[in-house]
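Suppose you are handed a protein chain with no further information: no name, no annotation, nothing but its sequence. What can you learn? This example shows the usual starting point.
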Amino acid sequence: MNEEFDAQVVQIEELLRHVTVIIKKRGRDILSDFAITNPQFNALLVLDNHPDITMGELCDRLYLACSTATDLIDRMEKNGLLERRRDVDDRRVIRLRPTPKAKEVIDRVIQARRRYVKSILTKLEKKDIETLARSLQQLHSLMTEENPPS
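A reasonable first move is to predict its three-dimensional structure. Written in structure tokens, the prediction is:
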């Protein structure tokens, strides 16, 4: 298009990347309070949204090799965060389901993350928060249209 637009694209991409890094780091700090790793939390979020999925489906959603996911799931089961259940229609199929403990961890972690974001947003004016929320929603919608979640 033009140089100004290209410069804005560079600036926005860099800022999104930097904000993502900060949020991920803060997220890891929060997770350490709950004795859970980031990959485990990501798996819990998938399981919470898609209870009773198979290991293969979980691997696809997390973009993990099944061998990696198996170790992850074994640790999570040992820690009481999920349970394996045989499929009622096909006993060869194992389904994964989060436990009540997992749901409690998810809720507490999300609350802690939201408290962090709130502590940052309180430093902005109301109109800036509204603009940011609207812009992020638009960006998310455009990206979701292009690459729908599975």
